[in-house]
């Protein structure tokens, strides 16, 4: 019970890495609020966590919406109490290069990935102050650590999340609010798999295609025989969410199977 007594708000919590965080955090004793656009999936996850003996609720959230963030924090406080953990997971991508990317695509990716992360931090800080502190875990990407490549808007948004995390870490250190960024590599979630992927591909890297799966495996040096799972990332988030990391802030941690070593 590494998170006993803690209260987590998890954006993008209905799927993939956010979902894995919600399940793991609840198993470790936290009450979790799953905040996502996908309310059906979020509701099913609440049922699953509750059936396993955990405490969970869901709220509809578009991370681009300042008022919806504030309403999500109010909902969390009235349901469980002040927020002590924020998992900023919601993200999107258009897998296009410079020639195909439009200004509208650029703006959408920056709005969801970067502004959404900023608005989440902004919304939870007053609640964390009431609680005497907290931990904010922003999901960046190995795209933030590579020398180049990746979609231009996506790589820019994720690199900026690292800077935002450091800036917020220093700004809120005096309130005992910690802020760090995790950089996952190739994680087998709907983000990169199958028709559910909300990457609006013009060139596909959908890993349901065995050739694409093999290509990504080549970009992950660590010989684990599979791409990463949501749980691989959630275990890093668990450390940052728990008191075990009580002096860790402003950190950028790669959980990437070594992919940024290439
Ligand atoms: N899968 C990977 O290989 C990988 C690698 C590095 C980083 N990431 C990052 O991890 C994070 C989670 O991705 P995932 O792989 O779990 O994907 P996923 O598609 O499984 O989950 C993303 C969730 O975010 C939600 N979401 C999207 N836009 C939203 C919005 N505007 N408001 C609220 N919710 C919204 C979706 O509904 C979905 O439930 C993203 O930020 C992504 O960029 C993923």
Task: Give a verbal description of the structure.
The chain is of the alpha/beta class. The protein has a single domain, classed as NAD(P)-binding Rossmann-like Domain (Rossmann fold), CATH 3.40.50. Helix content is 42%, strand content 15%. The chain has helices at residues 16-27, 39-51, 66-79, 103-131, 152-172, 210-218, 230-241, and strands at 7-11, 31-36, 55-60, 85-88, 134-139, 177-184, 252-255. Strands 3-2-1-4-5-6-7 form a 7-stranded parallel sheet, with helices on both faces. Helix 3 (66-79) packs parallel to helix 4 and helix 4 (103-131) packs parallel to helix 5. The mean pLDDT is 94. The structure holds nicotinamide-adenine-dinucleotide. Nicotinamide-adenine-dinucleotide is lined by residues 11-12, 14-18, 36-38, 61-64, 89-92, 112, 139, 141, 184, 186-187, 189-192, 198.
Number of domains: 1
Cα distance spanning the termini: 37 Å
- Poorly predicted residue ranges: none
Strand proportion: 5-15%
**CA-based gyration radius:** 17 Å
- Which ligands are bound? nicotinamide-adenine-dinucleotide
Which helices and strands appear, and what pairs or packs with what?
Elements: E1 7-11, H1 16-27, E2 31-36, H2 39-51, E3 55-60, H3 66-79, E4 85-88, H4 103-131, E5 134-139, H5 152-172, E6 177-184, H6 210-218, H7 230-241, E7 252-255
Parallel strand pairs: 1-2, 1-4, 2-3, 4-5, 5-6, 6-7
Helix pairs in contact: 1-7, 3-4, 4-5
Short description:
By secondary structure, the protein is of the alpha/beta class. The protein contains seven helices and seven strands, in the order E-H-E-H-E-H-E-H-E-H-E-H-H-E.
